[in-house]
Amino acid sequence: MEIGRLVRTQTQPGWAPTTRGGGRRRPLALALGRLSSRRPVRCRCLAAMQTSPPPPSVRTVSIPFSDLKERDRDLSGKIEEGLGPNGLGIISIADVPGFPVLRKTLLRLAPKVANLPEDVKKELEDPDSRFNFGWSHGKEKLESGKLDTFKGSFYANPILDAPTTDDVLVRRYPSYCRTNIWPASHLPELEIAFKALGKLMLEVGLMLAHHCDRYVMQQGVGPYDGESLEQTIASSRCHKGRLLYYYPRQFSKQEEGGSVSSWCGWHTDHGSLTGLTCALFTKNSMEIPCPDSAAGLYIRTRDDKVVKVTFEENELAYQVGETTEILSRGRLCATPHCVKAPSSENASNVDRSTFAMFMQPDWDEKLKFPSEIPYHQELIPPNGTLTFGEYSERLVNKYYQGKT
């Protein structure tokens, strides 16, 4: 699930390094402490912005996989440049073994899912999970408040088909605890490809989280009462993969050419880390290069500018979600982003497929939101404490039809 929000300047207390092995689960305590950084978090607003001339294109900071997998290697410079207070909140990993094949295998299935018979897709829907399992189309609201009909999604937990057998939890947190729904009879290869890519993206994400923990510790931030980012992700049962299919649209030269959010509205992910693949474009069932150099992922920078962000086709990108920004007290910064549809003369009847892997805390991890941090304050109870499951379900309520 993706959401949007406004972030203001805040103070930045402690962080704890990851610990190897097991141990008793502890809450993600987010109480404010003394100011420990000479560099404040920059403000950024998600209000719509008209840009002329077109926004510039910026390449992500890239880390070779061979460096990332070395736990003792100092990657703090790269982490700060890509994910720190002055970064874009996104970083890419190059040369991940097996990733290019797994990416194409899954993305080529996205149009097949979207083009399944309507009665089959209806069977794949799960309204009780707020459409966070199985097929979803035209249910989500973003940015303008209108229903999003430009893209369809297939959701599943690629790690656990049934995260829990506790019926109380299933009823309490249906967006995370219900079971996966696979089109076993009509598209059996989807489950295999979805799980293979999702598990790889989680493994690489855990490596990145380890280096994020090392970076935050190096900033002189003392220990805090809670788990590190790596341990938070590793112990979670509610990761979620989202296979996205952007439907072909008809464009004239003038139509929607100025909107950078024409395919997906501005929002900020609310989890810990989001893994992203480079998009795959097809036209009349044939794979093609992107028909419009202006189309793609856009990010709002720390000084409230909009830039187009690019990374290589065979690189795996990771964005920071707002839970990590809270957990790190602004040392790692979440990414307001949107997607622009192609609008060139050759863009008609072009579709786009991609995959996102949402890595997030477990549903019972406790988040404490002090009043000084204005994250969706209308959703936070007087004592400022919610589990991640409670918090995210309240956010989901804001963006889906029939839920208030």
UniProtKB/TrEMBL annotation:
Classification via SUPFAM superfamilies: Clavaminate synthase-like
Entry keywords, A to Z: Iron, Metal-binding, Oxidoreductase
Stretches for region Disordered: 1-24
UniProt domain Fe2OG dioxygenase: residue ranges: 238-361
PROSITE patterns: FE2OG_OXY
InterPro entries: IPNS-like_sf, Oxoglu/Fe-dep_dioxygenase_dom
Keyword Endoplasmic reticulum in annotation: no
Keyword Protease: no
Gene Ontology MF: a single term: oxidoreductase activity
Family indicated by similarity: Belongs to the iron/ascorbate-dependent oxidoreductase family.
Protein name according to UniProt: Fe2OG dioxygenase domain-containing protein
Native source species: Oryza glumipatula
Lineage: Eukaryota, Viridiplantae, Streptophyta, Embryophyta, Tracheophyta
